[in-house]
Structure formats: structure tokens, C-alpha cells
Amino acid sequence: MSSTQFFTYLTYGTRDEAWKIYGTKVGYLHLDAGVLPQDALPWSHEQLPTDFQCIYITEGTGWFSVDDKRHRVLPGTVLTLVPGLHYSYGPDAGSGWTEYMVGFQGEYPEELQRLGYFPPESVVRDVGFRDSLVGIYTEVLEIVKEQRSGYQHLIGSQIMVLLAKIDYQIQQGSQMQGYELELIEQVKAKFQEHIYATLDIETLAGTMNVSYTMLRDIFKKYSGLSPYQYFLQMKINKAKELLSEGNLTVKEVSFKLAFDNPYYFSRFFKKKTGVSPSKWNGKDIPTDLDFMT
């Protein structure tokens, strides 16, 4: 059991402020199931923060408190926070947790707030797991780690896309029926239980008293992916975590996640991330699979 964490405050100047949106801080945290969250969330208890924040929980369950109101947090939750909002949040003990966070300021988000984009009653919103959102957060993290000249403009542009995609997903999700959302949560939980195993999704659909066709259509509506594609994406995200820890070879990660063929795993990983698994997160993990990717 382990945890992976990255967090940094960002500097900015008048040129960055003129861009009308710029980053103030960036964070990433992953806790394995069973790891206690004490002192693991350095940015989770802020006294009246002065920036806007978008926090995306992709794995684990937990809680979020604001204005003496406590909300339940499930995988796929986005927390959209505004300056002056006194809040705290964190994972349930032992549940595991994966979180992406970006803080930002500028005239652009301030204007969005004036137009009602950040309504106080919608701080906690369910958008489901979205690979496109994870991709934006990952890109921001990589930009921040390099911090080349002009990087704030890149971050600001990425945050604008992030806000647009979150708004789009919320509008799409509002069109879904309650039973559809409940079914999706049940299936996602099953996927998480079988992350290290194979799963016959047609059989799973039957156990939930729906046809595979109906389950596929609901998942397409929810995420743009079929249930099987969604399950594979969850496995790839878990592979990223395992590879980042550096304790397993590419082949061992492949077998741990129940891919029948490590060569297929390596190709699929590169297709989804843009890099081979041996190069993930800048680490050079010895493998005999690279020539296949």
C-alpha cells in the first residue's frame, strides 16, 4: 500500500495576468485502498482561499464540507470552488483516492462567476469518469513540471478548455434519468472490484436485469465509451499508477491487470497515453516490449 503526491504553488506576473486566466497551484494525489488519509491532502483545508479551483475525484469515496453542509463524494465528482469559500474535504478512511486539482485566477473566471457559471448550490457535481478531463489535468501537470518560458499561457488555455468540458458534461448528465445514473454507478463499482481481473460485461448486464444493448447505450450517453472501453480505460489509469511507483516491470503490470498479452497491453497503453509504458512518467523501466510499440 502506498501513496503518490505532487503539489506546487505557481508564480505569475503582469504578462500572465493580462492573459485573463492563469494558474495558482496544481496538485495530484493517489492513495491506495487501506492507506489512511491523515496529512495526505495539504490543500484540502483552506481558510477562505483567494483563487478558483477545480478538483476532480476519479477514484475512491469521501466527503466535502462547505458552509456547515456535508456532501458525499463518489468517483467522477468535480468540486468547483470560488474565492472566499470556506471548505474541507477528504477520502473515507481506507477507501483509496485519486484526485486532480488546479487553482486559477483572472478576469476570465471572475466574469464567468458574475454570469452564474459557479452557482453556490452546485459546488459538488457528478460528471463521471472522463478521459478527456484526466488528459487536461495530466497535460497541466507536465507543463508545470517543466515550467518553460510562457508556461502560464498554456496552463490558462488548458483551464479554459477544462471549464468548457465540465460544463458540457454537466449539461449532458442532466439529461440522464435517475435509474440510468444509478445503474452506471453500480457498474463502475463492479469494474473497480474487477480491476485486476477479467470481466464478462454481457453477463454483468444480465445480473443487473438489463440487456447488454441497453447498458452499452447508457454508457455511450454517459461517457462516449462502450462499457468495455470504459473498463479498459480504468485499467490503463491503474497501470499509470503502478508504473509510476516503479516496483513492477511492464510485463508484471500487464499480467497484474489481467491483460492476456503484454504486447497488446504495451500497444494499447501507448495508443491511449502517447508514450510506451516503459517511458511513462519520465521513468525508464527496462522491458523487452518497447520494440513492439
Question: Could you please describe the fold and organization of this structure?
Answer:
- 42% of the residues lie in helices and 20% in strands.
- By secondary structure, it is α+β, with helices and mostly antiparallel strands.
- Mean pLDDT is 85; it is low at 284-293.
- The strands form 2 sheets. A 6-stranded antiparallel β-sheet has the order 1-2-9-4-7-10.
- Helix 3 (131-146) packs antiparallel against helix 4 (151-173).
- The protein contains 10 helices and 10 strands.
- The protein has 2 domains: 3-173, Jelly Rolls (Sandwich); 178-292, Arc Repressor Mutant, subunit A (Orthogonal Bundle).
- The chain is globular.
- The longest helix is centred in the middle third of the chain and has 23 residues, at 151-173.
- The chain has helices spanning 14-17, 107-114, 131-146, 151-173, 178-193, 201-207, 212-223, 227-245, 250-256, 262-273; strands at residues 3-9, 22-31, 45-46, 52-60, 62-66, 69-73, 77-81, 87-91, 97-105, 124-126.
Class derived from helix and strand content: alpha+beta
Relative helix content = 40-55%
Radius of gyration computed on alpha carbons? 19 Å
CATH topology title of the largest domain = Jelly Rolls
Question: What is the N-to-C order of secondary-structure elements (H for helix, E for strand)?
Answer: EHEEEEEEEEHEHHHHHHHH
Shape: globular
Q: What's the average pLDDT?
A: 85
Low-confidence stretches: 284-293
Number of strands: 10
Largest sheet: 6 strands, antiparallel
Query: What top-tier CATH class of the largest domain fits best?
Result: Mainly Beta
What name goes with the CATH superfamily of the largest domain? Regulatory protein AraC
Number of domains: 2
